[in-house]
Amino acid sequence: MKKFPLLLLCLALPAWAGNAAWYRWEGKGAGGFICAQTSPGEGWKKVAGPYRDAACSKPR
Predict the structure, then answer these.
(1) E strands within the chain?
(2) Residue 18 per-residue DSSP state
(3) Of residues 20 and 2, which shows the higher confidence score?
(4) Residue 48: partners with Cβ closer than 8 Å, 6 or more residues away
(5) What's the predicted TM-score (pTM) here?
(6) Quick check: 51 and 59 in contact, CB under 8 A?
């Protein structure tokens, strides 16, 4: 029975994690901008961030 509280603690740890950061990405070819948490793929480079929102308007 002593392992039960430890198991509950381990299951609750992800609930304390913060939100993932957002970054502003610039397209290398067309030069457009998007806001995303992860790289949109090849042809994009991270130019600003981190931000707290999906509009990349609130700095973290």
Answers:
(1) 22-27, 33-36, 44-51
(2) P
(3) 20
(4) 23, 24, 56
(5) 0.68
(6) yes
Alpha-carbon distance of 27 to 46, in angstroms, equals 9
CB 2 within 8 A of CB 34: no
pLDDT band for position 5 (cuts 50, 70, 90): confident
Structure tokens at 8: 């509950």
Give pLDDT tens digits for 6-58: 777 777 766 666 788 999 999 988 779 999 999 999 999 999 999 999 999 99
Q: How far is CA 35 from CA 18, 44, 55, in A?
A: 18, 11, 6
Q: Helices (H), strands (E): how many in the chain?
A: 1, 3
